[in-house]
Amino acid sequence: MSNVKQFNKNLCAFIDASPTPFHAVEEMRVRLQQAGFSALDERADWQLEPGKSYYLIRNGSSIVAFRCGKTPVHECGWRMVGAHTDSPNLKVKPAPELHRQGYFQLGVEVYGGALLNPWFDRDLGLAGRVNYENASGQLCSTLININRPVGIIPSLAIHLDREANNSRSVNPQRDLPVVLLQSTEPKDFRALLAETLAQQGVSDVAAVLDYELSFYDCQPAAMVGWNEDFIAAARLDNLLSCYIGLDALLTADNSEHTVLVCSDHEEVGSQSAVGAQGPMLESVLRRIAGSETAWQRAIANSMMISADNAHGIHPNFSDKHDGNHGPLLNAGPVIKNNVNQRYATNSETSSLFRRLCASCDVPVQSFVVRSDMACGSTIGPLTAAAIGVKTLDIGVPTFAMHSIRELAGSQDGFNLSKVLAGYYQLKSVVDSDRC
After folding, report:
1. Contact, 100 vs 257, CB < 8 A?
2. 144: domain range?
3. 372 assigned to some structural domain
4. Sign of the torsion angle spanned by Cα atoms 272, 277, 280, 283
5. Which Pfam families does the protein's record reference (predicted)?
6. Does 206 map to a domain?
7. CATH of the domain at 323
8. Are 196 and 168 members of one domain?
9. What DSSP string runs through 176-200?
10. Do 309 and 251 share a structural domain?
């Protein structure tokens, strides 16, 4: 494991290179490959070996990486960490072209629970997956990242909306179309994509058929604050946890059965073929186990840590927190609790995590939402319900969650990675003795 400064440098580089889930999974794939992990094909027969490491990708946007331990998995189970690759954003519509007042704009849909006001007056790049037909009539797919300011959503001047500072709301259909260029001639967005792909070296595009493209803030991740106490970046929720889990997995040795799963579509409910409410993780674990009995025994010996960002107590809005449960940035990872099972934490899983943190000399905090406020959720309860594994919900405290740019402590990611690396090396996550 690197030191804190190197960790944060690598984290920022990872986030900057990952404007979409497709790019995040590709970045993780490269790092896993470099660390000796072998790619698996779900359509093929698997020949897994003890002590070896593997990964598989589904849809290009979800990934499962795992190490096969030295002992049979049914005897010791899996040490699992889960995160998600997606973040709230603005996605380009299938027929997005708008020609108004001499401006060419693209219509967008809001993906997830985005905080919309910060999207105005930002330099926006465009990235995602493009599917096309090549010159030979074959269906092909490629990633695209236009990492320069190709779009902007200008605010309405305060002179034309005198109540803007008191009550400006955002109508996604009317207010969010992105300005791309000035033109009196109609433009075809798919034709523009084909031209851009050609400029990026994809020269065999006969016709762009479809795409999954998102706008994103071109401003790179940065260390901020007088003493660089903070990391400011887009998509900290939840690329921060993806990177922490990956760093911990690569740091830990290969003695135990360990899993990192980073799923798409958490921000919209996880109900998809590649989401946490889908069958991806269970199907992988069942194939590793080899039989129904081995699967059942392995799950009984396993644990999942769901890592997703937590709400740090904001100094300007401290009344939004329960007085005894206001996590501070740079004060340790947060155990997330909810009696209504919006988080899957229970006293056994939280106790194990507290002991882990103590053994790594890392402080730990707790979060409970105010009793008069609704509680968000994570992949934790979904995974616990889907495969019956005991689960803990934790996360790094952040500000401005779901904004176009979020804020986290510069110490917290490194500290949580240390704890998760220790967790990956635990001989057992089951307490055999009950006092």
Report:
1. no
2. 89-217
3. yes
4. negative
5. Peptidase_M18
6. yes
7. 3.40.630.10
8. yes
9. -PEEEEE-SS---HHHHHHHHHHHT
10. yes
Residue pair 392/384 in contact (Cβ under 8 Å)? The answer is no
Cut 0.70: pTM above it? yes
Give the CATH number of the domain where residue 181 resides. Answer: 2.30.250.10
Count of CB atoms within 10 A of residue 163's CB? 8
Q: Tell me, yes or no, whether 223 lies in a domain.
A: no
Using only C-alpha atoms, the chain has a radius of gyration, in whole angstroms, of 23
341 and 391 both lie in a single domain: yes
- Please indicate, yes or no, whether residues 133 and 242 belong to a single structural domain of this protein: no
Shared-domain flag, residues 14 and 153? no
Tell me how far apart the alpha carbons of residues 246 and 265 are, in angstroms, rounded to a whole number.
19
Whether residues 262 and 351 share a domain: the answer is: yes
Print pLDDT tens along the chain (435 aa).
469 999 999 999 999 999 999 999 999 999 999 999 999 999 999 999 999 999 999 999 999 999 999 999 999 999 999 999 999 999 999 999 999 999 999 999 999 999 999 999 999 999 999 999 999 999 999 999 999 999 999 999 999 999 889 888 999 999 999 999 999 899 999 999 999 999 999 989 999 999 999 999 999 999 999 999 999 999 999 999 999 999 999 999 888 999 999 999 999 999 999 999 999 999 999 999 999 999 999 999 999 999 999 999 999 999 998 888 999 999 999 999 989 989 999 999 999 999 999 999 999 999 998 889 888 889 999 999 999 999 999 999 999 999 999 999 999 999 999 999 999 999 888 765 554
> Which region holds residue 21: left if phi is over 0, alpha if psi is between -120 and 50, else beta?
alpha
Q: Is residue 325 located within the same domain as residue 347?
A: yes
